[in-house]
Design goal:
33% of the residues lie in helices and 13% in strands. It is an alpha/beta fold and 340 residues long. Bound molecules: manganese (II) ion.
């Protein structure tokens, strides 16, 4: 048996490997990276760092590892073999929640393909959505002469269903134009009301992909293509809470960490993130838990009464204020309005 995620501790505690409620596939695929090299080393770096992650989740008050986490290293050579490996895991572990640790982002369309149910009939509503955390839209048709480049990952995934992106803060003109034209992919710079509304409008079944560069470099710095700005830890926790509370996550991946021996924080935080995803799943998988974990913190406090409907005069004034605000905001952001 190989050592796996959170399993290479000297004291494995009460981890029950026979149950395998969670399966993590390590996909060290690195074929088309263009800037910093080394994302192929991420899965093992994350597994190694994971042995220092606290198993009990102090916020959610759950411990996913108690349900069994199995780490697997399927043999992969190209994108087709990744789809095959993912399909095999899906068949072998039909009752498990399966995730993947990359590797570069180009593995995402190969993985979505494996987990996507039959495509809906022409004209019918899509039955799967994709939640995409990233600094980059990855909407290029080709990059460095290849259509399977990691910079094309979203473009190659959009045929499976609508995509909502959060954290997007850099675009090629080609991507900007495409995002303006299509409603299939909705890109948001920050995690805000509009992003949340778009996310909630996705089909019930979603695939979740997390590019570590979606985080601010203040949180995770060791990535293949770093960008200033980005999401903070707590914002990503809120995205995860929203996703697991309202959607059924069919599978997930976490990609593009570029481990650096001088920066153990990045590998550790990446491991912490992967485990958080499992813990959010564990939290909402518990029967009867429909409420956000945040609301559990109000226990003991008096329940807040629903706000009364404001008087008509107040409503009219508020609507006018909000219209004025929207106007100024849209003129300020016109240059990048394809990022919502
Ligand atoms: Mn990216």
């Amino acid at each position: 048996m190989t050592l796996g995620f959170l399993e290479d501790k000297a004291d494995p505690g009460e981890i029950t490997l026979d149950k395998n409620r969670y399966v993590l596939g390590l996909i060290p695929y690195e074929e088309t990276t263009t800037y910093a090299k080394g994302v192929g080393k991420a899965p093992e770096a994350i597994v190694q760092a994971s042995s220092h992650v606290e198993l009990f989740d102090e916020v959610l008050e759950v411990d996913a590892s108690r349900h069994g986490i199995l780490t697997v290293r399927p043999p992969v050579t190209n994108l087709a073999s990744i789809t095959q490996a993912a399909k095999a895991l899906r068949e072998q572990f039909p009752d498990s929640f399966i995730g993947f640790v990359g590797g570069e982002h180009s593995i995402t369309p190969a993985l979505v393909e494996a987990f996507h149910p039959h495509p809906p009939a022409t004209g019918a509503k899509p039955n799967v959505g994709i939640v995409w955390i990233d600094a980059h839209a990855d909407m290029r048709k080709t990059f460095h002469g290849r259509a399977d480049n990691h910079a094309c990952a979203a473009h190659n995934s959009m045929r499976f269903g609508p995509i909502v992106q959060v954290g997007i803060r850099t675009l090629a003109e080609e991507e900007w134009t495409l995002l303006k034209k299509t409603d299939r992919v909705r890109a948001h710079r920050g995690w805000n009301k509009k992003a949340r509304a778009d996310l909630l409008a996705l089909p019930k079944d979603v695939y979740l992909t997390i590019d570590f560069d979606g985080f601010s470099p203040e949180v995770i710095r060791a990535v293949g293509t770093p960008e200033p700005g980005g999401l903070y830890w707590q914002e990503v926790m809120d995205i995860l809470d929203t996703v697991f509370r309202h959607k059924r996550v069919i599978a997930f991946d976490a990609v593009e960490l570029c481990p650096n021996d001088a920066d153990i924080a990045s590998s550790f935080i990446a491991a912490r993130l992967v485990y958080k995803v499992l813990n959010y799943h564990a939290y909402y998988a518990t029967a009867g838990r429909k409420k956000s974990h945040r609301s559990t913190k109000t226990t003991g406090r008096k329940a807040r009464r629903a706000p009364r409907k404001p008087k008509r005069r107040t409503r009219v004034a508020r609507a006018a204020r909000s219209r004025r605000r929207t106007k100024t905001r849209s003129s300020r952001l016109r240059a990048t309005s394809s990022v919502r």
